[in-house]
Design brief:
By secondary structure, the protein is an alpha/beta fold. The chain has helices spanning about 15, 30-35, 40-45, 80-90, 110-115, 160-175, 190-205, 235-250, 250-260, 285-290, 295-305, 345-360, 360-365; strands at about 10, 50, 95-100, 105, 130, 140-145, 145, 150-155, 180-185, 210-215, 230-235, 275-280, 310-315, 370-375, 380-385, 390-395, 400-405, 410, 420, 425, 430-435. A hairpin with a 2-residue loop joins strand 15 and strand 16 (about 390-395).
Length: about 425
């Protein structure tokens, strides 16, 4: 499928466009042009799919949706977003939106009606309401929320009317905007039958529609990556493992995860399945901030692009943007105009090269994973598919090393160098991607 071969680029639109932190519900601002202006650069970078975080009308950060049929007025209008998607498609870039189906904001019209009419409205069945309790907002009743956040009202997905409302909204997004996929927010809280309902709904419109679930703990989620439910899930295990392994100079940590998840061993959890990989996103510290040895930044992206699954770049991180989780994660979500696009030009060029290599390789998109060699500060692995064999070797240490894989000749796709794969020389803080000749 197209998504298996894609390089994703994640945009948090409210931050990217410099929108106000609070929605005043006043006049429409017209900011989608900031995103459109970046399309040529993204195409040159090698991006083939863009993943938007929430962009429908909300009260603050987007995950507190109040209108599933209207683009947030801090960004623009429905018609403007429709044109933006068209521009992406004209440049060969697919568009994936964030589907927030677990909860809404308190300003969601059905919940507002419950606050006004209490048990006098059938909308009370769209939520888990306790009319004998009270909320943090002194509503005179209590309700289930998302993980202790009373501003996020949990939806009661087993209600048929609510299901119809949400599926009609999804059909609207496909029919009106021509989107190509959805990221399912807090997918670990969505019941399997809801994923199946969503899959049937989107397949009616687009059989190749992409569904990726946000899953923090993925140990027991493998059964949900199947034709009836999801195409993929977010790879938080390897996100943590990559940065932690690089920072502790202990590559055994990330290699253990790669073998546990993707090898051909009988107990591997996701063998033959592909997860959405990342080194940072809108919820975690920027990779340049998190990585102790900055000289390993290119190595980290080399691993991101060559490990099993689809690589996803978080906007601005290709420039080495920094950011921690301070100020309610605002530091992680800056306006694109505030970033120095000229910083770390070597990283931008490296990502372009990695994207080109990945797009030209069936082994990287679909191939098996096998560990070849492993030391604390260097390791190598093999990706193989349909007769194509790639050997990836990475050295995160301050000293040079030699990696010995097999007695055969290969060409380094990063440098064009040809050498025997039983004698791969790696200077400090470098990596190679060899295609066996």
């Amino acid at each position: 499928m197209w998504f298996d071969e894609s390089v994703f680029y994640q945009i948090y639109p409210l931050g990217f466009c410099g929108a106000e932190r609070e929605n005043d519900f006043g006049e429409v601002r017209h900011r989608f042009g900031k995103i459109e202006a970046e399309i040529p650069r993204l195409k040159e970078l090698g991006v083939s799919a863009v993943l938007f975080n929430p962009l429908f009308e909300s009260e603050r950060h987007g995950y507190d949706t109040i209108d599933f049929y209207r683009v947030d007025r801090r960004l623009g209008t429905n018609e403007e977003f429709k044109e933006l998607v068209k521009k992406f498609h004209e440049n060969g870039i697919r568009v994936v939106l964030d589907g927030v189906f677990n909860h809404t904001g308190r300003g969601f019209a059905p919940f507002k009606e419950v606050r006004e009419k209490r048990d006098g409205t059938d909308y009370r069945f769209w939520f888990n309401i306790d009319f004998y309790g009270n909320s943090a907002y002194n509503d005179g009743f209590n309700y289930e929320n998302w993980e202790g956040h009373p501003e996020l009202v949990k939806l009661r997905l087993d209600n048929w009317d609510l299901q119809k409302y949400l599926m009609d909204a999804v059909r609207f997004w496909i029919d009106e905007f021509d989107i190509d996929g959805l990221r399912l927010d807090v997918c670990y809280l969505l019941p399997p039958w809801f994923m199946e309902l969503l899959r049937r709904t989107v397949n009616e419109r687009k059989p190749d529609f992409y569904l990726v679930g946000e899953v923090i703990h993925c140990g027991n989620f493998q059964n949900n990556i199947c034709p009836e439910r999801l195409n993929s899930i977010t790879n938080y295990e390897c996100y943590k493992g990559m940065t932690s392994a690089f920072n502790s100079e202990n590559l055994f940590e990330i290699e253990h995860s790669l073998t546990r998840l993707f090898s051909s061993l009988p107990w591997a959890l996701y063998s033959g399945k592909r997860m959405l990989n990342f080194v940072d996103n809108h919820d975690v510290p920027r990779v340049y901030t998190a990585l102790k040895e900055k000289r390993n930044l290119l190595n980290l992206y080399t691993l991101l692009f060559t490990m099993p699954g689809m690589p996803c770049i978080y906007y601005g991180s290709e420039f080495g943007a920094e950011g921690d989780k301070g100020d309610n994660d605002v530091h992680l979500r800056p306006c694109i105009d505030d970033l120095d696009k000229g910083a770390h030009a070597e990283l931008v060029e490296h990502i372009k090269k990695l994207a080109h290599i990945r797009k030209s390789s069936r082994a990287l998109a679909y191939g098996s994973y096998t560990k070849a060699t492993l030391q604390n500060t260097n390791f190598s692995f093999v990706r193989e598919c349909e007769g194509e064999k790639l050997i990836v070797a990475i050295n995160i240490g301050a000293g040079d090393c030699t990696v010995r894989v097999e007695e055969a000749e290969g060409t380094d796709l990063l440098t064009g160098q040809v050498r025997n794969l039983n004698d791969i020389y790696l200077p400090s803080f470098t990596a190679s991607i060899y295609r066996r000749n």
